[in-house]
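Q: Second attempt. The first request was missing the SMILES, so the protein and coenzyme A are both included now.
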Amino acid sequence: MRIERDNIVIRSATVDDAIQLNKWWNDGRVMEHAGFPYGLGEPLEDTIENVKSKKGKLSQLCIIEIDGKPVGELNYNIEGDTAYPGWKICEFDYQNKGYGLKIIMMLFEFLFKDESINSKCQINKIVWDTMLENKRAQHVYENKIRARRTGFRENAWKDQTGKWRTAVDYEMTREEFYSRYKRS
Ligand SMILES: CC(C)(COP(=O)(O)OP(=O)(O)OC[C@H]1O[C@@H](n2cnc3c(N)ncnc32)[C@H](O)[C@@H]1OP(=O)(O)O)[C@@H](O)C(=O)NCCC(=O)NCCS
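A: Got both inputs this time. The predicted holo structure:
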């Protein structure tokens, strides 16, 4: 997939992106928000296999580029009528500049509209979560995207340090997206 708006491009990752992805995933500062403060410790070969495994699938692993530079990654899985995305602006210089909102909106519009996805299974809702500690993400989802918080999953999983973490769940339906953003 490839979508583009202004200076932002979201495109499927290729094997050539594996080195960059592997660097981000193994960097504890980048992965802390996901509960991996020491990084994933993933061998490059596994990252290459991960990228390869998405080829030709509806579910994708993507690179986010701004001004032609890779600054982060996102992914989505599709199960039935639901898309489960995740996103990460990995380059700190590009965080807190309003890009998150734009990237998420681009992705949601794509997921609800893309012919090759929706002709196979119409996406009726998008579901994602964040960690309770990620107050910035919650602010973006609740006050900027105006997504619906559907609940908390207390102590849903143990992070890399052995600490129990609570997840906050969000959802946006096709109807909510179109009534809020009035795009047809
Ligand atoms: C979460 C993320 C997508 C948000 O994108 P972004 O481009 O950085 O966010 P924006 O610039 O659009 O908005 C940031 C908002 O959060 C606010 N904010 C920043 N730090 C905050 C904090 N600690 N607590 C609450 N709000 C905070 C900012 O003031 C801004 O709000 P405003 O525009 O109303 O002033 C991005 O920061 C990111 O990828 N972070 C690292 C990985 C991550 O957390 N991914 C999400 C996992 S669910």
